[in-house]
Structures are given as structure tokens and as C-alpha cells.
Specification:
Helix content is 77%, strand content 0%. α3 packs antiparallel against α4 and α12 packs across α13. The protein contains 17 helices and no strands. The chain is mainly alpha-helical. The chain has two domains: 82 residues, no CATH class; 252 residues, no CATH class.
């Protein structure tokens, strides 16, 4: 009996059930988003600003999403936008369509859009989101700029030291053979280190790789995360800056949410997962508990040792005046300037310190080689 290969095949039972509320198209889109590439923050900012502009000139939300989807060069992000367009065409709310893509649109984004839908001021909400995300990206860029030069300088220092020890120093060891007794300790140590690195280079490479892997595993562990969070708030050098960064982020996000008519407890719940430090997440829990019990919003601020004193006073004043969102946004702007100034100060201190360290290491190596040569030359005459 011949088998008709063109006959329609029956669906195969896979044992997998369709997630509730998700269409086949949205599942395919999720897979393509995960496999097709990463959506950059700059692309999300551009999409939001363009969507706000199109809504401002009277374009419907569905038409705006379709146009932006067709114009987006990133295939992963294009599929997400077009999937949202399909959801809007099916009658879903914009916030509900966004909620299907949590890796791109976070809780804060979705909550603010939902508030804009409820209050009828979507375009204004999108402008606030753009402002908030641009401020965050500016801070990230400033931190990277501050750290880039020292990191590059340290890498150059390591490469220079390795080059001298592996390729330059061995050319001088012939002059020192049989005269090790009169050599200074640093010279003898560098010669031994040079021979060790040339003979057992694979051990050094394996040790560095192992150390990097162990460090990464520790930082990814719960104990490592706790240590990083504690040092960032209590460390002798970085605590002042980190406290201002976390406080600024918290105030800006909460201020925008409350100004967008998001209820305070919901705004706190949305803001909590956006904080990268566990102690600030605990701080938000304390505020929510105080508010739920009918207490004052400013009370947990007064008891928190990490929040700057000026923030405590201004939050208490804003709560009494009934203008808390405006006060928090003004404080966020002020601390934006403070963080930028401190980052520039740190950069101005790190650069000469790194240059001095590089010069000191190279100078020590060179002096350990050149000075013994002069001593040997004098001993020959």
C-alpha cells in the first residue's frame, strides 16, 4: 500500500502546552528575539522618542507601530514592534502588548505606559520615559569614560612588564652569570621570575584563567553579591559616589512614576526590582511597609544611614507640602550634577596615579637591570 506523502500530517503530540495568553506569533517572536540579537538601550530610546513624536502629530498608535517596525534595522527589535502592532490590532492595550516582552520593556516602562493609557496622556508619558532613560544612559557612559583610561593603562602596564621580563631581561642575564652574589635582591628576583615565566608560561596562563573564573563564580554567587552590595555602600572610597547614584536612580524613577499618577505603593513595587543593590531594595520594602501601616513616607528616609542628609530634609518638606514627585525629580537633577562632578574628580585623580604606578613599575625593572651593569663595569676596572 502506497503512502501519500502529500497528505496533511496530523499534529504531533509533544507534551508541551501553549502558555496561556500567548499566540504562536508571539512565541516565535520571543524565540527570534533571544536568538536574533540584542536590543540596545539607544534603540529603545529612539523608538520611544519617535513614537512620542508620531503620536504628537496625530498618527494612530497602530499606524505608528507599523511604520516604526518597518523602519527598524535591528531584526530582533523589528519583530518585537510588529508583534506589538499585531496585538494592538487584536484589541489589546499597549501596556499589555509591551508586557509580553519583559527583556526589552521593564516594569517601570510598562507601568508608566499603563498610567498614560488610563489618564489619557500617553505622549507626555513617553517623553518622560525618554528623559529618564537618557539620564540613565548618560550616567552609564560617564562611568565607563571614567574607568576606561585607568583600565587601558593597567593593561598596558601588565603587557610592558611581561615584555620586559620575557624578551628583554633574558638578553642581560648572560652578563650576570656567576656574579649573582653581588646582585641586589630585586635583580635576582626578576631574573628568577623571568626564567620561571619562560619555562612555565602555561602555568601562569592557567593560573590567571583559573583566578578569573573563580572570581567570576564568586561574584555571581550570593555571598559575592552581598559583599559587592555592602562594599558599594560602606567602602572607604566608592561609598559616597555609589550612595548618590542609587539615591538619584531611586528618586528619579519613583518621581516619574508618581508624577504619572501611579499609586505610591504600586510605584514602590515597580521600582524595587530596578535597584541593583539589595540594601536599597530592603529600603524600599521598609518604605512600603511604613506607608501600608499609615505612616509617613519620609520616616524610613530619616532612619536610613546611606541616604544623604539633604535628601532626608527635602523629602520631609515635599511630603508636608504635598508636592513629593516634584521634589524627588529636582533632587534627582541635583544629584545628577553631583555624580557627574565626582566622576570627573575621580578621573582626574586616577589618571596621574595610574601613570605614577606604571612609571614606578617600569622604573624598578629598568633600575634593577641597568644599575647592576654599572656596578659590574666598575668592578672590571
Amino acid at each position: 500500500m502506497a503512502i501519500d506523502t502529500k497528505a496533511k500530517k496530523a499534529p504531533v503530540e509533544t507534551g508541551l502546552s501553549m502558555p496561556s495568553g500567548m499566540s504562536i506569533a508571539s512565541i516565535e517572536e520571543a524565540v527570534r528575539t533571544r536568538l536574533g540579537g540584542r536590543v540596545k538601550a539607544s534603540e529603545i530610546i529612539f523608538f520611544t522618542s519617535q513614537l512620542s513624536l508620531m503620536l504628537e502629530v496625530g498618527t494612530s498608535l497602530s499606524a505608528a507601530l507599523k511604520a516604526l517596525g518597518n523602519q527598524t534595522p535591528n531584526p530582533a527589535f523589528r519583530e518585537v514592534i510588529l508583534a506589538m502592532h499585531r496585538d494592538i490590532e487584536e484589541g489589546k492595550q499597549f501596556s499589555e502588548a509591551m508586557q509580553r516582552h519583559p527583556s526589552i520593556f521593564d516594569h517601570v516602562f510598562v507601568s508608566m505606559v499603563k498610567a498614560g493609557e488610563t489618564g489619557g496622556f500617553m505622549q507626555k508619558i513617553l517623553n518622560r520615559i525618554v528623559e529618564m532613560k537618557e539620564k540613565r544612559q548618560a550616567l552609564i557612559a560617564q562611568v565607563r569614560t571614567t574607568l576606561t583610561y585607568p583600565v587601558i593603562l593597567c593593561a598596558i602596564c601588565v603587557l610592558v612588564v611581561v615584555f620586559i621580563l620575557v624578551w628583554v631581561l633574558p638578553k642581560f642575564t648572560a652578563f650576570f652569570e656567576g656574579k649573582e652574589a653581588i646582585l641586589p635582591f630585586t635583580t635576582r628576583f626578576l631574573i628568577a621570575l623571568s626564567e620561571s615565566m619562560r619555562s612555565y608560561w602555561w602555568v601562569y596562563l592557567a593560573s590567571v584563567a583559573g583566578l578569573a573564573i573563580c572570581l567570576k563564580m564568586f561574584l555571581d554567587s550570593e555571598a559575592g553579591k552581598i559583599l559587592v552590595d555592602r562594599v558599594s555602600l560602606r567602602g572607604p572610597v566608592i561609598s559616597r559616589l555609589c550612595n548618590k547614584i542609587y539615591t538619584c536612580q531611586f528618586l528619579r524613577t519613583l518621581g516619574h512614576l508618581m508624577e504619572s499618577k501611579v499609586p505610591l505603593l504600586e510605584a514602590l513595587d515597580v521600582n524595587r526590582p530596578t535597584m541593583g543593590n539589595r540594601y536599597y531594595r530592603q529600603f524600599i520594602d521598609e518604605i512600603a511597609e511604613e506607608v501600608q501601616q499609615g505612616g509617613r513616607f519620609a520616616k524610613p528616609f530619616a532612619a536610613n544611614p546611606h541616604v544623604p542628609e539633604s535628601v532626608k530634609e527635602m523629602v520631609a518638606t515635599g511630603e508636608e507640602a504635598g508636592n513629593l514627585p516634584k521634589v524627588m525629580l529636582r533632587l534627582a537633577e541635583f544629584y545628577d550634577t553631583e555624580v557627574d562632578r565626582e566622576l570627573k574628580t575621580i578621573a582626574s585623580l586616577i589618571e596621574p596615579a595610574a601613570l605614577i604606578a606604571l612609571g614606578g613599575v617600569v622604573g624598578l625593572i629598568v633600575s634593577s637591570v641597568i644599575l647592576p651593569l654599572f656596578k659590574l663595569g666598575q668592578a672590571m676596572y
